Amino acid sequence: MPERATRQRWTYAEFARLPSDGKRYEVIAGELYVTPAPRPVHQHIVACLLGALGKHADEHSLGWVLPGPIDVLFAEGDYLEPDLVFLRKERKAILSDRGLEGPPDLVVEVTSPSTGERDRRLKRERYLHYGVPEYWVADTATERLEVYRADGSSSAHDDVVTWTPHPGAAGLTLDVPPLFRGFE
Questions:
Q1: Which CATH number fits domain 38-180: 1.20.1300.10, 3.90.1570.10, 3.40.50.620, 1.20.1730.10?
Q2: How many angstroms separate the CA atoms of 97 and 51, rounded?
C-alpha cells in the first residue's frame, strides 16, 4: 500500500530534493504520495506503449513519447509523475530541464494494486483540471485500456483502441490484448 504524508504546501524545490530511491514521489493537490517501484508487468505495458506510440510519433514527425519517471509540473502543489506522456512538437516550449511545465497532450498511467483508485479518481481529475486532452488508464486487473478525454467522454477497450494525437494527424490503431500478455 502506498505511503502518504501530508504538509501544508510543497514547493518544487522541496519536491526536487526527495530521494532517488526507486520509489515514485508525487505531490497531488498538495499531498505527497509515495509508491513502491512498479512490478515487471507494469513496466512491460509501459515498454509496449512506448514502442508503439513512439514509433508512430517518430514516423509522422508528431512529437515525443517519454516514459516515466518524468515530472509533470502543473502548479504549486501539483507535481505528477505519469508512466508515459506524449508531447506534440508544436508544444515543445513546455519541455524544460525540470520536466514538462504544463499539460502533455497524452498521459498514460498503468494501474497497480496500490494505485488503481488514485489513477482513476484523483489523478484523472488533476490531469483533466489542468487541460490534458487525453488520459489513458491501462488496467492490469481487467486488461482494458480506459480512455478519458477533456470533452468529458470516456471509453474502455479490451480489443483495439485508436489514438489520434491531434485533429488531422495520422491515427494509430493499437491491439489491446498484447499489452497485457506480459511474460506468458
A1: 3.90.1570.10
A2: 24
